[in-house]
Amino acid sequence: MAGSLAGVLAAQNLPVFPQLPTPGELPSQAELLPLRPFSFEEPTSEAHGLRWRGERVREEGDLWIIEGGAIQSEDLLLLADLISYNLRTGALEAQGRIRLEGPGIRLRCERLRMDWKKRIGDAWALELELPPSWTLRSSHVAFTTLKEWDFEAVELSPCPQEKPGWSARLSRMKLQLEGFATFRNAQIRVGGIPVLFLPWAAYPAKAERSSGLLPPQVGLSSHLGASLGLSYFQALGDTMDLTFSPEYYTKEGLFWGGEYRWNPEVTHQGSVQGQYIHQRSNGEHRYRYRLQELWQREDGWQFTADINQSSDTLLESDYGRASGGLGSASSDSAVFLGKNFAWASVNLSAAEQRTYFLPDDPFYRTDFPSSLRRQSLPQLQARIYPIPVGSFYLDGGANLSHFAYRLDLGEGKNDAKYGWFRDDWSARLHGRLGQWGPFRADLQVAGRFTRYSASLKSAIFDTTGSGSGDPLDPAASSSFDPFRVDGEAVHRLLGSSRLQLSGPQLGRTFEKVSMFGYSGDVKHVLEPFLGLTKNSRSSIAGNIPRFDEVDSRPGVGGSADGEQSLEVGLKQHLLGRPGRGTDFADLVRWKISTRYHFQPILLSDGRFKSGWASIDNDIDVEPNAQLRVSFRRSSEIGSAGADNSLSAEYTSLLGNRFSLAVFTTGINRYLVRQQGLQASGIHRFFDDQWRLEFQANYDIHTKGFVFSQVALAYMTPCVATRLRYSHVAIQAPGALNKEDRVDLVLTLRGLGDLFSYRR
Q1: Three-class SS state of 8
Q2: How many angstroms separate the CA atoms of 393 and 385, rounded?
Q3: N or C: more exposed end of the chain, with fewer CB within 10 A?
Q4: Range scoring the smallest mean pLDDT among 172-176, 446-450, 729-733
Q5: Burial of 364 (0-12, 13-18, 19+ CB in 10 A)
Q6: Distance between CA atoms of 721 and 666, rounded to whole angstroms?
C-alpha cells in the first residue's frame, strides 16, 4: 500500500527530531578532568574554542589519541572510550560508548567517523532518544552538516522496554532537519509479528507543529463494511489548527468529519467540530456539529458557549470507535455571559435541551412529537448577595426570560412552536430568629411576583386533589397539551415562609466498637427538628407551564404553590475515631423526616399530595476510603431529581471498583418517569495485565437492559487489545438496526487505534 504518512506531530504524541540544549544546558562533566585547550607549536585560529580532557592522551604529530575522554567546541560535545583527532585536518574517529550532543543532534553509538570542521560523517550501531518518549535505533547513519541524515536498518518505538510491545522497522530513512523525513519498507510489528506494511511514507521532521497527513485508520464491521480513514492536519500558526478527517465505509458511504481549534491566549480557547453522512442503506441524512467557546477575562467577565445539534442520538454509537463512549449523545446547548461583582452577579444565558421520543418510551404515543426542544431564548438574571439586616440577611433576584417548546410532529407536518415570556422577581429574608439554651429557631420569609405572557388554555394539572393522584396520563387528554402554551397572559403573586425549630443535640459515645471492618470509638448524635411551611395559593396554578422549578416549586426551600405543611424530622450523625487522642470524623449522616400537608399541593409532574407524605430518608455512609453507601427516599419530587435511590460503591486498594445503584426519578421536564438499576465496575488481575470493565442499565418499565457493555482488555507495554460487547436497546430515527455489537480494537501507544473490528 503506497501512500504518505505525514503529520507526525508533537500534538499527536508522535516523534519529532529533538530540541537540543544550549551549551549552558549540557550535562555536567564534573566527574571528568577539567577541559583544557589543545596546544600548537605555532598559534593558529583553527583551534580557537576547541578543548579536550581524558584519562590518557598520546600525541603522534598532528594526531591526538584520547582514551576515556571528551572533546568540546562551542556547540558540540563528544565523549567516548577512544577518540582520535587530527588537529590540522579536523578528521575524527571515536569508538566505544560514544555520546554526541549539540544543536540538532543527541545520539549514542559504538563507532563514529566525522570531519569535525565540516560536520560530515558516519555513525554505526547508534541510538537516538526522541521526545516525548520515542527511541530510534539504526545500524548506520551518514550525515551532512548535521542537517541531513541517511539512516539504514531503523527500528523506531515509543516503548522504553528492551523488548518493546510494538515497533516500526524501516529499511531506510532520510531526514532533513526543519524539513521532512521519508522512509521505505515500513513494518509495524506487534510482539514481533508484522501487522501493517507501508512501502513508502513521509512526515515533517520539525520540532514545532507541522501540517500533513495523519496515520491512517483501518477497520472492519459486519454492518458498515470495511473502513479506511485518512486525516489531514493543518497548522494555522501557533494558536490555531484544522483537522479534516473523512472515513469511507464500503456499505454506507463517506463519513465526513472535521475540527477547527483555536487558543489565542491563556484565557481564550474554543473549537468547532462536525460529522455528516448520507447512508446508502436507508437514504437517511445524519449529522452532528458542536461549537465550544470559553473566554474568561481578567476583569471578571466570562463567556462560555457549548452548542450541540444532531439528527439523532446514536450517530456516535453507530460510527464511533469502540474506545469511545456509547449511548445517547448529548444534544443540549447553552450560551452564558456574566460577571460577578462584590455584592451581586449579572448574567445573560440561552439554552436548548432536545429529546427524541421513541416507541419504547413510557410517554410515547403515535400522535406525540418524535422530537421536542425545550428552549430559553434568552434569560437575563440578576442576583443580590446576602446583605446583613440586623440578625437576618436579605437577598433577592430578578429573572427576565423568553421560553419556548418546539415540537417535531413528523414528516409532512409543520413543526409546532409555543413561546412565552416570563418575568420573575423575588426577595428573601432569612436568619436565626432566636436561641434559648439548646433550642434554636430559624426563619425564612420570601415574596415572589411572576408574570407569564401566555399560559395553558385549560388546567391540565389538577390542583384540587379530586383526581386519583396518579401521574399525568397522556390518554386522558391530547398528548402534548402540557406543552401547548398558547393561553392568555397570567400573573402570580406568592408569599412564602418557613419556621424551623431545632431541639437540643443528644449524644453518646461507644468505645472500642468493631463492626463491618471498622474498629474504634463511635459517637451517636441526635438533633430533632420541626419545620412549618406556609405559602399563599394561586388560583392559576393548574394553567402555569411546568418549565422549571420557578413554576413548580416557587416557595422557600423548594416548597409548592399553596403548601401548608408541618415537617417532623431527626438529624443523626455517627462519628468515629481510631482511639483517644484523635478527632472524631463523620461515618454516617442520616436525616429522616415526614410532612403533613394540611391542604393538597400540586407536584411538578402533575400529581397532587395531601395529608401525610411518605417518610423521607437521606443516608450517607462512608466508614473508610474504600466503601460508600447512600440511600435517599423522598416524596417531594423535583423537576428532575431522584425521589428514590440506593447506591453503593466499593474501591479496593488494588484499584478494583464496583458500584450498584437502584433509582426512581420523578417525571422529568419531558414528563417521562425513569426507574431502573445500574451496576458498573472494573477488575484488574494478573498484575494489571488484564482488565475487566462492565456497565449495565436495566429499565423497570421496559423490563430489559437499555444500555450495557462488557469490555476485556489485555495490556502489554505500549499495546492494548480490547474486546467489547455492547447492547443499545433504543434506536433513534435513522440509526442502524444493530442493538448488539462486538468490537475488537488494537491500540498502540503513540499511534492510537491502529485497527478495529466490529460485528
Answers
A1: coil
A2: 9
A3: N
A4: 729-733
A5: middle
A6: 41
